[in-house]
Amino acid sequence: MRRTSASLVAGTLVAALAWASSPSSPAIALEPSAGVADLTQDINQILSDSRLTIARAGVVVKSAATGEELYATDAGKLLTPASNTKLFTSAAAAETLGLDYRFPTTVLSSGRKAGSVLAGDLVLRGTGDPTMLAEDYDALAAKIAAAGVKVVTGKLVTDDTWFDSQRLGNDWSWDDESAYYAAPISALTASPDRDYDAGSVIVSVAADGDKVKVSTTPETGYLKIVNKATVGSETDVLIERQHNSRTVVITGTVKDPYQEWVAVDDPTAYVASLFRTSLAKHGVKVLGATVTGPAPAEAKELARHESMTLGELLVPFLKLSNNIHAEILTKAMGRKVANQGTWSAGLKVSTDFAKANGVQVINMRDGSGLSRRDGFSPGSIVQLLTAVRSKPWFKTWYESLPIAGNAERFVGGTLRSRMRNTPAAGNVHAKTGSLTGVTSLSGYVTSAEGEPLIFSIMLNQYLSGSPKDIEDKIAIRLAQFTRATATADATQLRATEQGEAGDLECSWLKPVQC
């Protein structure tokens, strides 16, 4: 069992007590104390880093206790947020859908059962559940068999009409099309693991004598594997699905086992193949073809599976910065509010929620931050983070944010290798964000005096050398903040350990399991 230092436990307790307090009061005009002046000087020094000379940096720090703005630079500038967008999507989802929201997946039929024969079509209907595994579809098939059905005379119908047919975001890069973090969005989808990477399959390679063995998780014949890899003295292999196809080409050399998460081309068709295979395994034969379409209005439910609650889903969603969860929740919000499972309807829900909570500068193009046309100001992010403290779902949402320096994947999340052994460890609850040339960190930290602080750090358009350590130094400095006294030289405020991932968060580096 990993041991935790007494100081870390104490810091975590102070943070918990601070954030369990009442919502912030209106801003109080205070004379800048020596501690605030010192904080300003130190953050300015941190931001003078040469990597930011040609970059854009926006930083806002606010006291949640008094409403006082402790530091601000370019607070109102529109910047690219990357995955900080998920703060808005997740908060809007908690408000709109509720923490008890679940995604049902059902099997229906409009036909009549005579003995072991079901005369009519069998319909598989989804509502976007990103947590559905192959074993869950298998369990639905087992329920059909347990009901005594052995033959279905009609077709296997996949009903994914809960969402529209637009699979990819308008601004997503074409070369991300086969990447698991930009998988197509469908109301019927499947995940290969309990990170719930919906719409993807894990493709694994291993040396087997003088040949390279390929396997998939889950086992599926949906993908066409073209294996050109050879056994070599090192593992230098590329596993890539060709654009707009089911063909996965594997090239390079393999010495040690390696795996890659690959997005499928069509989640609905992929799920249909999984479900049909499971039906056959359980002795249910479907005579007709597989087609896509809406379930008839008179169709009756034969079997049902319900997902975990949204409150539970927030953990893998926010801790691991799952893009697909964000987009599915966006369409789910659109479906609930406007009866339209579309990006446009869902983004309006998120935007309306943000504006209703005082957010001024906001441009949402997707739910995850994958779009480079997403834009927020650091001041707007701090406004959102301030407003949600009064929400009944805040505690669950707050605990779902990554926690600095906690090595547990589903606790520390994308911050688990950052700010270890510093006053920020176990203290900072914040959302990370990463795109090429973009990094952001926004969330909550408790000062050395127990004062709850809210912050947003957005760094854009740097060319080389990840500035994530700059974010860490600011967050650590905030954890050391006191109003009355100065703190150590800012040049010493750096994380003592950095994770192997370095400049990228876990959501971009699935194979290394950072």
UniProtKB/TrEMBL annotation:
SUPFAM superfamilies in UniProt: beta-lactamase/transpeptidase-like
NCBIfam families: PBP4
Record carries keyword Hydrolase: yes
Keyword Protease tagged: yes
Region forming the signal peptide: 1-29
EC number in record: 3.4.16.4, 3.4.21.-
Protein's recorded name: D-alanyl-D-alanine carboxypeptidase/D-alanyl-D-alanine-endopeptidase (Penicillin-binding protein 4)
Keywords assigned by UniProt, alphabetized: Carboxypeptidase, Hydrolase, Protease, Signal
Enzyme class label: hydrolase
Organism: Nonomuraea angiospora
Cited Pfam families: Peptidase_S13
